[in-house]
Structures are given as structure tokens and as C-alpha cells.
Amino acid sequence: GQCIMVCPTGALMARDNVEQARELLEDEEVITVVQFAPAVRATLGDAFGLLPGTNVEKRIITGLKMMGANYILDTNFSADMVIMEEGTELLGRLNDPQAKLPMFTSCCPAWINYVEQHIPELLDHISSTRSPQAVMGSMVKTWFAEKIGQDSSKIRMISIMPCTAKKVEAARPQLAKDGVPDTDLVLTVRELARLFQSRGIDLKTIPDGEFDTPFMSQGTGAAVIFGKSGGVAEAAARTLYHVLTGGEVNSIPFHAAKNPHAFKEAELELGGKTLRIGVVYGLANAHEVARQVLDGTSSYDFIEVMTCPGGCVNGGGTFRKRGKYLNFTEQRFEALEKADENCVYRQSHNSPMVQQAYREFFGEPNSHKAHKLLHTTYDNRKKEPAVPSIREVWQKIKLG
Ligand code: SF4
Description:
Layout: H1 17-26, E1 31-36, H2 38-43, H3 57-66, E2 71-74, H4 75-94, E3 103-104, H5 109-118, H6 132-147, E4 155-161, H7 165-170, E5 176-177, E6 180-181, E7 185-188, H8 189-198, H9 221-224, H10 231-245, E8 255-256, E9 264-270, E10 273-281, H11 283-295, E11 302-306, H12 329-342, H13 352-362, H14 368-374, H15 390-399
Parallel strand pairs: 1-2, 1-4, 3-11, 4-7, 10-11
Antiparallel strand pairs: 5-6, 8-9, 9-10
The site of iron/sulfur cluster (SF4) has 12 residues, from α5.
Keywords: 4Fe-4S, Iron, Iron-sulfur, Metal-binding, Repeat
GO molecular function, one term: iron ion binding
Organism: Parasutterella muris
């Protein structure tokens, strides 16, 4: 027969994050704020039998409201904030002969963990700007709390993300205020599907909803492409183009990379300088590109790294056909590209909500307040092996 272990007090029953999210959303004592990442809108529909690449942004809003969320915000907003901070940081480095270049993007936490644990020599090259998830959490517990006239201790921030690495990121001590994490709970796309299904919410049949706060709920076309490999680099380049030339562009001409470890490259002639941008995915490729940087053989000024092939639309917490990895990439890319084209504003600096945040709260990008709330620090977590390997011992004997 079956052997079932029973814990009489229930203390051993681990509650999963879906159950925790449901409890938070139904708790009337707290104010729940939910954000969802760019890639989520292009990947959740698969769980409900919608065509791959169906953009379900507006149905996610309805579903979350049905679950009891008090406020729904868009990670696209904080992605635009990231571009303002990271772009300004890059310009500062380009103008400072002492600064470390190239600069790497920082929004993929699996990449950050890898650098901290395996190539800490590279840490000074990583942008100090927090990821969109972390920027949103920090702003919700400060500016947003002020805007809705509530104490931040009453707010619970839930974010819907494409991977479990974002759960690890949310637990970083650097992303907490007085020991309280800015992001209280993270669900993956697959967990959000289970959350909806647990209350019988079918994405296929529910109507569209609309974001309902006039702040922090809207992003530009530059932000929504964060979900695909190359999107962050492109978004940053659109804003750098404006800062350095005064003009506006809706897209940046990337081409297939000459560097065998990169996916795409672009060279931009800006204000008498050539800015070289590289786009890389996969840790094996990123490791090689990092080596080139540390050896002094890299030609790039700015490098985007995403751990997942194709970027967050292929995150480990999204849906895929059994055994296949890159199956829906094309349709998901198209969904985000179409969303970009349909946006009124295509560049982060033109977002009225971003402009409002700087006007009312931060002053300007990289201001003292912005540094405190929108930037972070990294740790060298490389572990030296406690016992020398047999190979090292053998080499010593040979050398001696
Ligand atoms: Fe997560 Fe992959 Fe996106 Fe990195 S690239 S943030 S690991 S989904």
C-alpha cells in the first residue's frame, strides 16, 4: 500500500509560492501590488491554449484583479527607469578615463550570480543599476507608497517573472530596506498559470483589463523588448542616440556578430565617437566574452548579457514544448516587436511616467537619491577550493 507521512501540526507542510501568493492577494489587511515582466505577456498564453506569441498583457491585468490584487503595475515602466540610470552610467564611464569599460548590463540575475561566483574580477565592469524587478520594488516601497498615501509596511510587492533566478535576486540583502525585502514574493510564468487555474480563471475567455494608476503602469516600446535578447542594448542605444545627437530613432541597426561568442553587434557613430555594442546570450558565450574583456582584446564599449538563449522569452519559468527549448522564440520575439511598434513612445526618455518620476522624486538620473534607491552593489563570492586538486598537487611536484 501507499505510505503517506503525516505531520500532525501541519508545520512540515511546505507551502509553495502559488499558495503564498493566493493568501497574500486575499489578505484584506495588506495592500498587494503586482508587477509583471515584459516576457510574461508573450509567454503565459501557451498554458491556456492560445497561439504561441499571443500578447496577453491586458488579460493578465483582469486575471490579477479577479485574484484580488489591489494595484497592478508594469515592469515595462521600471525597465524604462533602468535605461535612464544605466544609460547615464555608461555616458559617465565613457567620459571618465579611470572608469572600467566595457560596461555589462545587470538585469539578468543568473549572470550576476555567475560573475560573483566565478569571475569576480569582472564585477567593476557590471552596471550598478538594479534590474527592472528591483527598481520597481524599491520605488513601490517609497514613491508609490507616498503617492497612494500608505505606509510601506502595509504593502506587499509580488512580481511575475520568467525565471526562478528572479526569486534568488529578490532575496538579496542589498535589495531590502531595514531588513524588509523590496520584493516580497516572486512567481514564475508557470506559477502564475497555476495561480489562475487554482481559481478557475481561464485566460482564453476573460476580457481585457486596463492598468488603472496614472503612474508606474506604462512602458515604452524600448521597455517591452527587454524580454528578448538584444532588447536592453537596443533600448539603451535609442536613448544614448538622443542624448548625444538630439535626434530620435525608433530602431537601431544591429547585424550578425563577427565575434563568434556574440549574437548581434552594432556600431553607432555618436557625437564624434563610435560606440560598439555587443549582445550575448548563454553563460558559456558570456564567459568567453568576459575573458576577452579581462585580456584586453574586446572591442566593445557596452555588452548585454542574458543567460537564457534568446533572452527572457525562453526563461526557465516559461512554457515550452516537451524537450524543446527554442521552440516558440520566433513567435514570442514577434509579439514583443509588435508591442514595441504599437507604443506611442518608443524611447525610454520619452515616457511621461519616467519624466514624472524624475520631476517629482529623483531629480535627475544618477542623482544621490537615484543612487540610493535604484543602484546596488555586488559581492565577490568566489570560493577557493579548500583542498588542492590532485592535478594541482601533481603540478607542484613536477615543478619542484
Ligand atoms: Fe531569468 Fe533567463 Fe531572463 Fe536571465 S535571461 S533574467 S535567467 S529569464
